[in-house]
Amino acid sequence: MATSHDGVLDALGDPTRRAVVRRLAAGPASVALLAADLPVSRPAVSQHLRVLHAAGLVAFDTVGTRHVYRLEPSGFEVLRGWLDGFWSDVLGAFAAHADARGGHGAAAAGGTGPRGAGEGVS
Question: What's the CA angle centered on 89, arms 88 and 92, to 5 degrees?
């Protein structure tokens, strides 16, 4: 399982793997079913699934002689956490920049937005 957002991003960096993830978002599927929807061979789909599995993005259940793959939500939590942290950092930097400019904008005017509380409509 991927322990960092880099592993998840690397796994999702390939268009075929992203297509596999989109397909699995609709529900579990075997390699044969996935290959039928993609312009690649079954062995290629299996290789892509190995990468996604190593990144913690998919899991599988054995049904007879087949593996039925499904998305693993916990694998996406690593990426979500990184993105949330990224946006928190960006928004914090934006707030610091706005404060450094003297607090111009909606907060300084007593409003909460273009037509926030405390602002009249002209």
Answer: 85
In angstroms, the CA 99 to CA 31 distance is 54
CB 2 within 8 Å of CB 11 = yes
Give the model confidence (pLDDT) of 54-90 as tens digits: 999 999 999 999 999 999 999 899 888 888 887 777 7
Token representation of residue 45: 């789909």
Question: How far is it, in rounded angstroms, from Cα 61 to Cα 68?
Answer: 5
| CA dihedral of 50, 52, 58, 63, whole degrees rounded to 10 | -20
Rounded to whole angstroms, the maximal C-alpha distance in the chain is 71
Residue 54 CA, chain-centre distance (Å), reads 16
At 47-62, the pLDDT tens digits run 999 999 999 999 999 9
Q: What angle do CA 70, 75, 80 make, to 5 degrees?
A: 125
